[in-house]
Structure formats: structure tokens, C-alpha cells
Amino acid sequence: MEFSRAWTYDHLAWRGHRDGPWFGAIPTLTAAALATKHIRLGPLVASPNFRHPLTLAKDLITLDDISGGRVTCGVGAGSTGWDANMMGHEPWSVGERSARFS
């Protein structure tokens, strides 16, 4: 079976997996880039809740270079869910989250 794309969640944890191992999106995708030659790679939607746009861009440029240009990145406004609360501050409003990517 051949795959044309591989995506991973850009979350600090995910629902029922909160207490188990949960690896970072970009390092996981970098490992996939090294293990594959043709599939496109990317986070489903990058979240401004815990990722600064500048460091995200730098990580994606590195991944794109390592993968030979196979990266696609979705960007969203994030949410007020569990990820936002893990950061130890009050969740940002939709406007505050959106402004991080403007």
C-alpha cells in the first residue's frame, strides 16, 4: 500500500491520550521525512495557542529542507480547549489567537 500524504496533530496531547506519550508534530514529521521519499508531510493545523509564528516558520523551513520540499502546513486560530489550559494562563480570545498569525 502506498500513501501520498502523512499528517499529524499539532496538539500538546489528544483527548484519551492525555496521560500517555504524545510526541511533537514537527519532530514526528521530521522522522517521517527521513523514513520516506515521496509522501507530502505536515501538521493538520498549527495552533497559535502554544506555538509562536516565528519559531513555527523556522521549524517548518527546516522540515521542508530535510524532506526535500514535501511540506504543507495548515494554520488555524486554535481553541480554548485543553491545550490552551495546559499553558498555565487564561485561554486567549479568538481575536488574540488570530492576531498571533497576522
Search tags:
single chain; 36% helix; mainly alpha; two-stranded parallel sheet; 102 residues
Task: Give a description of the structure.
It is a single chain. By secondary structure, the chain is mainly α. The chain has one domain (5-12, 21-99). The protein is 36% helix and 8% strand. The chain has four helices and two strands, in the order E-H-E-H-H-H. It has helices spanning 25-35, 53-67, 82-86, 94-99; strands at 5-8, 40-43. The protein has a two-stranded parallel sheet. Helix 1 (25-35) runs parallel beside helix 2. The longest helix has 15 residues, at 53-67. It is globular, with a radius of gyration of 14 Å. The protein starts with a strand and ends with a helix.
Summarize the structure.
This protein has helices at residues 25-35, 53-67, 82-86, 94-99, and strands at 5-8, 40-43. With 102 residues, the chain is mainly α. It has one domain (5-12, 21-99).
